[in-house]
Amino acid sequence: MKRPLKILIVADVLTTKTSGGKASNALVQGFIEQRYDLKILHYSREDINFDGTDTISIPEKKSSWSYITAKMQVVFQRATGRNINNWVEARNGFSYTHNYDVKSIKAAIKKERPQDYDYIVALSYASSFRAHKAILELSEWHHKFLPYVHDPFPMHSYPRPYDWVEPGHQKKRDFFVSMYTAAKAILYPSKMLGEWMESYYPTGKDKSVVIPHLIVDSLKDSRVYPPYFDPSKFNILYAGALMSARNPMALVQAFLEFISDGDGLDKQDHARLVIVSGDSIFDKKMKSLASLNSQLLISPKKEPFQIAYNMQQQAAVNVVLEAKGPASPFLPGKVPHCVTANKPILVLGPYYSETKRILGIDYPYWSEIYDVETIKKHISILYLDWKEKKGQSTLEIDDLTTYFESSSINLAMDIIRAKIS
């Protein structure tokens, strides 16, 4: 019987309070489901345990100059009201706190022996990459290093409109150039993201391996919903953050035009557009429109993850809303949940989109984010299908669920072993 691979996972965060933490947590659970021999080091600042797995919370290393400078900066800011972080990053590339966290993570890794493991995997969130930087500073691990790159870094390598040159840009870029050179393979949640990043970091060419965001088997619909959500209705649901470039107003306008058409289809009784998000620049306009139309429902607050998940499982249509731009190489963390729901997905975003790629070139329910007429047409077709099938419309894409199952890890690890051998 073949010995299971032994993997050291080093994670910045494994809490499920952020989208990045949820994705990392799900990936760890995927490795566990596939019976890999794991040891997990994490810097989440809270206790996290996975049954049957050695999971260690990395302690802060307070006996270092970086810790002292980080705390001095906090004291200075409190005393003067001045945040000097941009100045610090412009000089050093990273904040004092970032450097201090990296040293803490690095100290924990140094207690392990590379010869005891087949691979070391780095997981991160947002623009942190602390675990990645800590491993990069330990050359004895490079021949087993598998960094998981969930988003572009630094910010200039994002697609428009998210790209900008941040303080310490060149030092941040130098860090990623070194990491791409040192790593044996680069893990991505998205095929398009791997291709996108190779255009910025040629030393990562032919190192890309995809492990998508995973379906968590233990995550189930608990049948608890907010009072404004009626599962029996034709609910078009968007659940997620609304950043300035992720504009929902064409969707809102298309829905309001759809329900105002006098075609005798009982849309006023059945159709609802439900937007579940935290605070955004679109709140005032959306809530003003909602006050005039009871079929437009705006959540009063950001809902807990489990509640939002429950709503996704019962929605008639789930919406994936992406920024207006030339491409969206990201795989939104909500996509596996929408696939699990097995309901039609309305994709609003660029033509070149990882979500669109996964759903297939002939997937019918896609539109540019600003195209009101096309969005309205899709809503009309989806509503008629929902009525005809008595609320039982499905996604109708065979075997898509298997793409997001934990078994995808095994395929990725087989590819990695072939690349390294």
Description:
Helix 7 links the parallel strand 6 and strand 7. This protein folds into 2 domains: 225 residues, Rossmann fold (3-Layer(aba) Sandwich), CATH 3.40.50.2000; 168 residues, Rossmann fold, CATH 3.40.50.2000. The longest helix has 17 residues. Helices cover 40% and strands 14% of the residues. With 421 residues, the protein is an alpha/beta fold. It is globular, with a radius of gyration of 23 Å. Helix 2 packs antiparallel against helix 4 and helix 8 crosses helix 14. The strands form 4 sheets. Strands 10-9-8-11-13-15 form a 6-stranded parallel sheet, sandwiched between helices. A 5-stranded parallel sheet has the order 3-2-1-4-5, with helices on both faces. It contains 16 helices and 15 strands.
Low-confidence stretches: none
CATH fold-level assignment of the largest domain? Rossmann fold
Number of structural units classed as domains: 2
The separation of the N and C termini measures 21 Å
Fold blueprint:
Elements: E1 6-11, H1 19-33, E2 37-42, E3 54-57, H2 65-80, H3 85-92, H4 96-109, E4 119-123, H5 130-136, E5 145-147, H6 169-182, E6 186-188, H7 191-200, E7 208-210, E8 234-239, H8 249-260, H9 267-270, E9 271-276, H10 283-292, E10 296-298, H11 305-314, E11 317-321, E12 327-328, H12 335-341, E13 345-348, E14 352-353, H13 354-359, E15 366-367, H14 372-388, H15 400-403, H16 408-420
Parallel strand pairs: 1-2, 1-4, 2-3, 4-5, 6-7, 8-9, 8-11, 9-10, 11-13, 12-14, 13-15
Helix pairs in contact: 2-4, 4-5, 8-14, 11-12
